[in-house]
Amino acid sequence: MTHVFHRDLRAPPPEIVHGEGAWLVDARGRRYLDACGGAAVSCLGHSDARVTAAVAAQMDRVSFSHSGFFTNAPAEALARRLVEAAPAGTGAGRAMMVGSGSEAMEAALKLARQYHLERGEPERTRIVAREGSYHGNTLGALAVGGHAGRRAPYDPLLMQIGHVGACHFYRFAHADEDSEAFGRRRVAELEARLAEIDPDTVAALVIEPVGGATLGTPTPPAGHLRDLQELCDRHGILLIADEVMCGMGRCGTLYAMEAEGAHADITIVAKGLGAGYQPIAAVIVSERVVDAVEQGSGQLWNGHTYMSHAAACAGALAVLDAIEVDGLLARVQTSGERLRGALETAFGNHPHIGDIRGRGLFRSIEIVADRTTKAPFDAKLGLAPRIKALALEEGLMCYPAQGCADGTAGDHVLLAPPYTCSDAEIDEITPRLARAVDRALTEARA
């Protein structure tokens, strides 16, 4: 009997005992190709000796000191590295390191509020975000997220957020729109929404530069993120970029925003930053936000116990070293194209695959009941979770989700394999997934 409060109390998961590169091995000796990084976390796989050595060496010196008393060398080095690598326009900013993506989103929201208070604009209390987004599992982060199914149980506890339409071309573009026209329409709709609620009361707009788990990796139209940045600047609204899943190389550039020639006032990263070796996230803050705080109270009002954790920061530095030394950003781009090609070959004419989308090693397929109408399967069929279970039987880990069509219905499967995957491992993903998808569809029709 287990005393762990597992996610599914009726079906405890297998026990994992070993990780080797892109593979995990359970207590029965079964091997699983980790084609989703857990949740886009394990970007270096599961056995990078350089990262474990860096963590161990730091723990031999000191693991923890409270940031209210001391700083430490790994935190200073990591903050400098993240700021210096940030997209042009961030300037001489700063970074704070916290324990998770949800924690980072909470810190970003509080900092946005502090920024406006420091500048004498207390009326800026509203947050605007997108439908279909996901920004974390704490109450503040969940409120900002726009996934109806995940919000529903906790809705009475959530603060009120202004949500605008998702930037998801496959699902929400008009028949006569190309990608760029769709992006411009979404910006115009946002501006109209701001006019309704008074832009002078809005503190921040929160976006995922490339959509994550709940929509299945939709990419932004060309110029769209620059247009959002210009709109926010014009109205004095901070732009917060949630790169928890899509950042730190996952899309082929260290920051997802840089591929669009745009930058945010506040950027949050997590998952790939620590690669699963230690829990860590970071909030990268632009120079203008830092200046407002420095010239105001001079104090960061929000703090967390494990900020700047020395061992976690040492691990993250080693992860960034590996990405740079091993040329993994270029590898993500070439492997991503290889994976895209394999998915299009296997699923491009599949009667129940409506869309194949993503960037780098951040790819998704959307499963539909009818390709012509894009009608989703009934959510009660649980098609995406069924694919996950069958993929495990095929020795493959993938990340399924429901709700990408309307917040409840709409099944997709997300893939986010390690950047270090060999060509042979990349080539193994699609046939295993295809067998799981076809088995799930056969069972659903039975």
Compact description:
The strands form three sheets. The protein has a seven-stranded mixed β-sheet with strand order 4-10-9-8-7-5-6, with helices on both faces. Strands 1-2-3-13 form a four-stranded mixed β-sheet. Strands 11-12-15-14 form a four-stranded antiparallel β-sheet. It is built from 14 helices and 15 strands. The protein is globular, with a radius of gyration of 21 Å.
Question: What can you tell me about this protein's structure?
Answer:
This protein has 446 residues and is an alpha/beta fold. It contains 14 helices and 15 strands. Helix 3 (73-84) crosses helix 11 and helix 13 (383-393) packs across helix 14 (423-445). The longest helix is centred in the last third of the chain and has 23 residues, at 423-445. It is globular and about 65 Å long. The two termini are 34 Å apart.
Attribute tags:
single chain; alpha/beta; seven-stranded mixed β-sheet; four-stranded mixed β-sheet; 15 strands; 16% strand
SSE diagram, text form:
Elements: E1 16-20, E2 23-26, E3 31-34, H1 37-40, H2 49-61, H3 73-84, E4 94-98, H4 101-118, E5 126-130, H5 139-144, H6 148-151, E6 162-164, H7 169-172, H8 179-197, E7 202-207, H9 224-235, E8 238-242, E9 266-269, E10 281-285, H10 287-295, H11 310-325, H12 328-347, E11 353-359, E12 362-367, H13 383-393, E13 396-397, E14 399-402, E15 411-415, H14 423-445
Parallel strand pairs: 3-13, 5-6, 5-7, 7-8, 8-9
Antiparallel strand pairs: 1-2, 2-3, 4-10, 9-10, 11-12, 12-15, 14-15
Helix pairs in contact: 2-11, 3-11, 4-10, 8-9, 12-14, 13-14
